[in-house]
Amino acid sequence: MREGNAEAHVGLRWLAEPPTFDPREGTTVVEPPGAGPGWWSGACSALFDPDEGVFYLYYRIRKPRELGRGVECRIARSEDGVRFRDIWRATKEQLGTESMERACLIRGHDGAWRLYLSFVDPADGRWRTDGLEAQSPSGFDPRKRWCIFTAEDVAVEGVKDPWVMRVGGRYFMILSYAPAPAKLSEQERARMHATGDVYNTGITRSHTALAESLDGRSFRWLGDILSPSDGGWDAYAARVSCVMYLPPVWVAYYDGSASVAENYEERTGVATGGDLWSLTRVSAGGPVLTSPHASGSLRYLDVVRVDDRLLYYYEYARPDGSHELRVSTVSL
Known about the structure:
This protein is mainly beta. The protein has one domain: Glycosyl hydrolase domain, family 43 (Tachylectin-2, Chain A, 5 Propeller), CATH 2.115.10. It is 3% helix and 48% strand. The protein contains 2 helices and 20 strands. A 4-stranded antiparallel β-sheet has the order 1-20-19-18, with no helix packed on it. The chain has a 4-stranded antiparallel β-sheet with strand order 2-3-4-5. Strands 6-7-8-9 form a 4-stranded antiparallel β-sheet, with no helix packed on it.
């Protein structure tokens, strides 16, 4: 849980079950850019800055594949956590990429703002994660980014969707990664990165890894913390989107899918553990959060605590198959 990205909050009383909410009662924060499948506003990262008393929200604009995929990312500002105004944006052309994905916005120990951004590496067609730094959330310059992880750095086929928190003077980054398959046919090898999205090929699966840093700039890869199940609703993807600490356990919300046919339309499950290295699925029998519409997708959830409220931000399928960005508030 991030409250202005301060140290991990440990003052919550133990709750027997992780807080939940009815997504049907959520409020639309950002409409999709168009109607129908492939038109999405989401892949968000949210935080509350106690110094300013305002909320900040990163989100990604996506169009159908034939119209450009992930075309633009934005940062917005709000006084109430519901009504946001855009203050920064970057296009895929500024990154020289086929598509951009989720990013994570934080404020560092030193007061600097950082944006950890994932996009398709133009060098090899694999997902990578870079960092940007600025003195304000509206000041990021895409030309001044630095590499956090490429797929080659950690011997995988893609690394993306960072989510970062500060704990005990360190930074922890959660990432989606695609392991390199043990065996590949020549046909599989040829098509694995031909479309710039290995996750949509069925050749590998979506796992979750953890990395750590002392300065928020250089991260050390620690390895897998959640893998797809052997069968069931999350057998293809187990992508942790955020975590929060509810003493004495960590609660992780993750995006799951049964097969590559559900890629892009994941639903949300829950895992818990005494630490981030030993997460156990609570939702083994099925997702805990879904949309009642279209594919049922509810994904890329992030949570912010402000006083005695939890604000959940998430990407949510609409009746026409598009995805909007919503917020739901839970009182503790």
